[in-house]
Model the fold of this input.
Amino acid sequence: MRILYFTRDYTPHDLRFLAKLAQSDHQVYYLQLERRGHPSEDRPLPPEIETVRWPGGSGVVGVAAALRLLPALRGVIRRIQPDLIQAGPIQRSAFLTALTGFRPLLSMSWGYDLLIDANRGRLWRWITRFTLRRSAALLGDCNTIRQLAISYGMHPERIVTFPWGVDIRHFTPGPSHPQDAAFTLLSARSWEAIYGTEIIAHAFVKAARQRPELRLVMLGNGSLAGELRKIFSRGQVDERVSFPGHARYADLPRYYRLADLYVCASHSDGTSISLLEAMACGRPVLVSDIPGHGEWVTPGENGWLFPDGDADALAQGILQAVEQRQRLAEMGQAARQRVEQQADWDKNFPKLFHAYQIAQQAAR
Done:
């Protein structure tokens, strides 16, 4: 089958799908809508995947600019003649594909498209409904996305839900840490408002005042860099916070294993891959109580939840984790087991082919 994989930008999630598709019997073409500054994925595409050259993929693309690319997209479809187009996010790549009238369209939700973008206003809600009603099938990574898609008109029987999962052979547990050593927290999300990294900063300052052994590792970077450094400076905890920058995929397991506890204060998420990576590495987690997190975290068993946006509650959760330090190894084992059972990417990926079958049947 000839598949056109049409995405917004090149990310680790795209590579995750394309690397698996490269191992299949399908002929896969890769089409990129835009390029947003520094790429979040620097590993090359698998050689089996053919990149499509077209006018898009060279800069940030708004709605108006995307519409101007519509004739070029029709030209790509005529040239490649795909049997199926897998496109996402919904209001961008999938929407453009829906406007061409091509069938079958397998729309792929990226989480934020239904959690955030669909709520931006009347136009975005119309685009969401338009695209989903013209999608032969929808791919989503959690039940929260499934329910939102249904509310926007997607037929429940044409939604395939599965966590994008992690490579559980790459992300593996490490040894437990000595009880008398420093207690290290790890944040692995981008420093943007949607991920609540300033909540983590405020909470760490509060908790660190009571626990001198606390340390914080802030992976990544982002627009909140200046604000975060001010919070740590004013709280006089600068020397207890490290900023390694963006970690390469090969290095990520080492950072998770160095931590005693993974923390995330995201205000919106589907299935968070970094959450699953931390759990796969046998680390308990302390994360905001939002639906996407709640599908993975059982409080007291493999981690804890705290009220979204509440820095005081997060600080108390950190202190509680330190006090229950002797339980962390057991909780980390439970976290690893949950990932092995439900988020093994090798086991979950074949559901994509089931989505292909649903899409093709719906288009007949």
